[in-house]
Amino acid sequence: MRIIFLSPPAAGKGTQAKIIQERTNIPLIVMGDILREAIQRKDEVGIQAEKYVKQGELVPDHLVIKIIMMRLEQDDCKRSGFLLDGFPRTLDQAKALDEAMTKNAVMLDYVVYYAIDDQIAIKRVCGRRICKNCGAIYHLMNKPPLKPNKCDLCNGDLFQRSDDTAEVMTTRLSAYHQKTAVLLDYYRKKNLVVEINANRSIEEILNETLSKLKLSIKK
User: Fold this and answer.
1) Does 54 fall in a domain?
2) Which of 79, 132, 161, 212 is catalytic?
3) 79 is catalytic
4) Tens of pLDDT along 143-155?
5) Domain span at 21
6) Is residue 78 a part of any domain in this protein?
7) What is the CATH number of the domain that holds 9?
8) Active-site option among 13, 71, 124, 129
9) Is 23 a catalytic residue?
10) What is the pLDDT of residue 181?
């Protein structure tokens, strides 16, 4: 099974992808992770990517595609497929990825889109709190700490990230919708999109995802 995950911020895409990976053994490819791994390997592509990262610039699409395809050519992906989280983000990236996959005789099965109401996404983000000491994540409504503003694990102080505000989130959502509308249309024309209602609990979202994709759970 070869699947791309897309969603607005705070829809829980990363959480769902990780759970599905754990329950199915399909390799999970997180764009940020494989980019860091490529840089650490110090191979030709990694060295080129590192130059852009050090300069604070985005790594060009052609390098990102090379890094992704190198990962897809590994035995576990050839055997079991992949779950791709964090790429593509634009129509140009989607077309470039399609072209590279076609050359390697790899075809997508699904593009899962987790749809969430903007107001729910904003509430999720605004309620998030993070431990300064160990990095544990809490939510004032969904996963509150036992003691106010204190981590259950290490008793460290909890804080709200500067970008976890309604103002910042509203701007991020607006930008996301503008970029993603075209991307979703592109995949819908290919009959690949499976839309999931992400306004619900993690378990409800997961159950619908597994059902619609007809994924088998490992024993």
Assistant:
1) yes
2) 161
3) no
4) 899 999 999 999 9
5) 2-117+191-213
6) yes
7) 3.40.50.300
8) 13
9) no
10) 84
